[in-house]
């Protein structure tokens, strides 16, 4: 079975061919980061235009690298939600055109389900059910992966996502967009004990996240020191931010696993590339006797292989769409 996966929900135009659900035959990513860097964040209008310019070439490269023709594909999978609406529309419209001209089935994929699927590409033995923490630029979710295609949201962020918190703190320190990786790098030589940062209190569902308090605390710390002309040690501050975010994510995920009786835990999303989060989740899971899975680093950020992989499982479960498929900016995983 050969599935083409198309991803255009944010600032990466990515297309991949995946064989038999888990074997990556090709994965081509055209990133727009350099262009958005100038503005300190993703400019939706620019993102849509670049997807439009790049999608055909990226698709050709993915097919050529895989040595696969359009006729040999079993289905065409595409991210239809959630994300920037104009960006999503480019991928969805392109996929619909391809499906129409080739007569191949069209398979809709939820972006977060795609991130979760990066673990299938990395760990051949992993199968549902398990609990997955998805932390990215737009989402922080604890998800019960009931089956390959059925998901239950156990906790979600009330405000900023973990990646957003990394990026906004990084911006306040003058690091370029996207700042998460710069905080990660600066942390390597930093002392995480210099700054004591707050862990949020969340009323109601104890497995929901909140990162806006931490972000505001860090931004105030930086602005106050700038007003007093005091230069903070940004390596130490980065290490403190990274440790605090890793603690919040790890504590809530492991506690919810204990509550629900899960022994298998996975990590996914752009923030799963963070060395502090990877190390803390691994160490705590080992200590408490959980099996722990995380994607290999190149699969942590947005890519087409995760959409082709999840698209394969959707296709096998009979989840297909017709020409009425539309892009949706906000859509809970429970509504797919
Ligand atoms: O999953 P992703 O590529 O896009 C979304 O679906 O949002 O995630 C991007 C996010 C950004 O916030 C980026 O700063 C963060 O993942 N990120 C990291 C690291 N690498 C990427 N955050 C912390 N440390 C990293 N090494
Ligand atoms: Zn993503």
Describe it:
The protein is α/β, with parallel strands linked by helices and 336 residues long. The protein is built from 10 helices and 10 strands. The strands form 2 sheets. Strands 3-2-1-4-5 form a 5-stranded mixed sheet, with helices on both faces. Helix 9 links the parallel strand 9 (264-268) and strand 10. The two termini are 23 Å apart. The structure holds 5'-O-[(R)-(carboxyoxy)(hydroxy)phosphoryl]adenosine and zinc ion. Residues 10, 136-138, 163, 166-167, 178-181, 184, 269-271, 273-274, 301-302 line the site of 5'-O-[(R)-(carboxyoxy)(hydroxy)phosphoryl]adenosine.
Overall mean pLDDT = 97
Give me the count of strands: 10
Radius of gyration: 20 Å
Uncertain runs are none
Bound molecule types: 5'-O-[(R)-(carboxyoxy)(hydroxy)phosphoryl]adenosine, zinc ion
Proportion of residues in helical segments: 40-55%
Overall spatial form: globular
Number of helices: 10
* Beginning-to-end CA distance, first to last residue: 23 Å
Trace the largest sheet across and list its strands. 3-2-1-4-5
Structural class: alpha/beta
Classify the oligomer.
single chain
Instruction: Give the SSE string.
Output: EEEHHEHEHEEEHHHHEHEH
β-strand amount: 15-25%
Largest sheet: 5 strands, mixed
Keywords:
single chain, 336 residues, alpha/beta, five-stranded mixed beta sheet, 10 strands, 18% strand, globular, binds 5'-O-[(R)-(carboxyoxy)(hydroxy)phosphoryl]adenosine, binds zinc ion
Q: Care to give the gist of this entry?
A:
The protein has 336 residues and is an alpha/beta fold. The protein has ten helices and ten strands.
């Amino acid at each position: 079975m050969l599935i083409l996966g198309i991803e255009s929900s944010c600032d990466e135009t990515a297309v991949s061919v995946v064989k038999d659900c888990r074997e990556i035959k090709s994965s081509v990513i055209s990133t727009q980061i350099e262009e958005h860097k100038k503005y300190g964040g993703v400019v939706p209008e620019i993102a849509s235009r670049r997807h439009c310019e790049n999608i055909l070439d990226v698709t050709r490269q993915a097919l050529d690298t895989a040595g696969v023709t359009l006729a040999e594909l079993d289905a065409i999978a595409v991210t239809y939600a959630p994300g920037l609406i104009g960006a999503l529309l480019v991928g969805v419209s392109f996929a619909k055109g391809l499906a129409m001209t080739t007569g191949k089935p069209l398979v809709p994929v939820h972006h977060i389900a795609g991130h979760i699927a990066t673990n299938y590409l990395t760990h051949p033995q992993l199968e549902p059910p398990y609990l997955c923490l998805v932390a990215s630029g737009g989402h922080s979710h604890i998800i019960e992966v009931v089956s390959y295609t059925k998901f239950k949201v156990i906790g979600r962020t009330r405000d900023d996502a973990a990646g957003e918190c990394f990026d906004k703190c990084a911006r306040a320190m003058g690091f370029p967009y996207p700042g998460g990786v710069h905080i990660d790098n600066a942390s390597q030589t930093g002392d995480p004990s210099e700054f004591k940062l707050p862990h949020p209190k969340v009323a109601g569902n104890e497995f929901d996240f909140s990162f806006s308090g931490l972000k505001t605390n860090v931004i105030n710390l930086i602005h106050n020191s700038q007003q007093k002309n005091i230069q903070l040690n940004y390596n130490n501050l980065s290490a403190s931010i990274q440790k605090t975010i890793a603690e919040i994510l790890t504590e809530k995920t492991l506690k919810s696993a204990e509550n629900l009786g899960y022994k298998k835990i996975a990590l996914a999303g752009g923030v799963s590339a963070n060395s502090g989060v990877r190390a803390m989740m691994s160490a705590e899971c080992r200590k408490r006797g959980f099996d722990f899975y995380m994607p290999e680093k190149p699969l942590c950020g947005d890519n087409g292989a995760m959409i082709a992989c999840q698209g394969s499982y959707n296709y096998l479960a009979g989840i297909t769409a017709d020409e009425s498929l539309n892009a949706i900016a906000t859509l809970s995983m429970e509504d797919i």
